[in-house]
Automatic annotation (TrEMBL), chains A, B:
One of its GO terms (biological process) is innate immune response. This is TRAF-interacting protein with FHA domain-containing protein A. Its main location: cytoplasm. The gene is TIFA. It comes from the Eukaryota. GO terms for cellular component: cytoplasm. It comes from Equus asinus (Donkey). SUPFAM superfamilies: SMAD/FHA domain (SSF49879). The keyword Kinase does not apply. It is found in: Cytoplasm. Coiled coil: none annotated. Keywords: Cytoplasm, Immunity, Innate immunity.
């Protein structure tokens, strides 16, 4: 049995692959608590939280400009579909979350396309879903990109993303508009 | 300041009023752990779970036919709207959740209308949202109905629900099709 199956049912698991980039990822260690290139199995009933707080988040960014909970993912099943899908919700009061070209403010949510670019502040996350069979569990996998996902034609090498091939972002040296702290629960 | 306001901002809170009925509610004490007629303030970032497990659910039904987590509510904000809305998701693998006339299977989700009837097994929950201003918090309030919400013209007295005035359900004596246990997380 491969590690990509549910141990109880041997069903293939849906995998959400997240390729991340931040201009300050070296040497600041923003992603140091994220395990790259290893799949993690999670129950599909649970909300998956991303943010600064290691107490409440599944995946943390070690960066004071990130909100305690920046965004969350919910698993669900579309009507008429047999596979898992993801919904994303912006949990930050002060920082917008951009899904492809759509801007989400606090508590806005959208269903994620199977392949999409998530941005907040200087963070870029390319999310790609690989369908499985199991509805009970799914997997996540993180990949660290050595360069911006917005400026390069050749990332990921197999699947160029022409719509992201223009620089719309501030330079790495710029000051982020993100909060330094939030009075959040 | 009334109890319906956010203590920090004095903003009015959105309230979700839930009128519940189950044919076996007396004398079985199915709803004994639910505080009726008192509003509870909750953070809008948190998922609200309903089910049998007191470890993971905000509101528990003391009934072995109920799943550990039967369904969940998520707060969100619609695009172009300034008020909170609710999304409901069926978290039970074996029992359908009916929202008005729509049947939700495991992990199906829908946005809740401002006023709607939720059913699963022999449970009936009339959910009515009262809009507030605060986005940080909301309130819940439970009311126990002495009789079925499906068969009575005069419940709630001020707001008859003609669309629910026909008996489509099994009698209180019938055996529920729900699971007696689930191997759920």
């Amino acid at each position: 049995m491969s590690s990509f199956e549910d141990a109880d049912t041997e069903e293939m698991l849906t995998c959400l692959q997240m390729t991340v980039y931040h201009p300050g990822q070296q040497p600041n260690g923003i992603f140091q608590s994220i395990g790259f290139h290893k799949r993690e199995k999670l129950p599909s009933r649970e909300e998956v939280k991303f943010g600064r707080s290691s107490k409440v988040c599944n995946y943390t960014f070690q960066d004071r400009q990130v909100s305690r909970v920046q965004f969350s993912l919910q698993l669900f099943k579309k009507f008429g579909s047999s596979v898992l899908s993801f919904e994303i919700k912006n949990m930050s009061k002060r920082t917008s979350l951009i899904v492809d070209n759509r801007t989400l403010d606090f508590l806005h949510k959208v269903d994620l396309p199977d392949r999409c670019m998530i941005r907040f502040g200087d963070y870029q996350i390319l999310m790609e879903k690989e369908d499985g069979v199991s509805l009970e569990f799914f997997e996540t996998e993180f990949i660290l990109s050595p360069r911006s996902l917005l400026q390069e034609n050749d990332w990921p090498p197999q699947n160029p993303i022409p719509e992201y091939c223009h620089s719309v972002w501030s330079s790495p040296q710029s000051t982020s508009p993100m909060e330094t702290d939030e009075n959040e629960l």
